[in-house]
Amino acid sequence: MDDAPSAAQLSYLRRGLVQPGGKLPLFDEDGQAVSARTIRICIEKGWAEPWFDNPIKPDWLVCRLTDAGRHAAEGA
């Protein structure tokens, strides 16, 4: 992982730093859904991992920070 997160990815990852278990948000500070592309790229880069399935909203990607994601969010 030699590339740094984009501004959108970094904003997403940093919000997990203050949540129990490193839970990442489904919505941004303005109440808009976080882009599925942002979430998927963070998963592909190893910065986030799926946490659990939401039976009420199966299309939502509920994720948490990985150690690499925590490092990327804190070090950037």
Describe the fold and architecture.
- The two termini are 13 Å apart.
- The chain has 76 residues and is an alpha+beta fold.
- The chain has a two-stranded antiparallel sheet.
- The longest helix has 9 residues.
- The model has no long low-confidence stretch (mean pLDDT 90).
- It has three helices and two strands.
Features:
single chain, 76 residues, alpha+beta, Arc Repressor Mutant, subunit A, 36% helix, globular
Q: Please write the CATH class name.
A: Mainly Alpha
The largest β sheet comes out as: 2 strands, antiparallel
Helix % is 25-40%
Structural class label: alpha+beta
List the helices and strands and how they pair.
Layout: H1 7-15, H2 36-44, E1 48-52, E2 62-65, H3 67-75
Helix pairs in contact: 1-2, 1-3
Give a short overview.
This protein has 76 residues and is α+β, with helices and mostly antiparallel strands. The protein has helices spanning 7-15, 36-44, 67-75; strands at residues 48-52, 62-65.
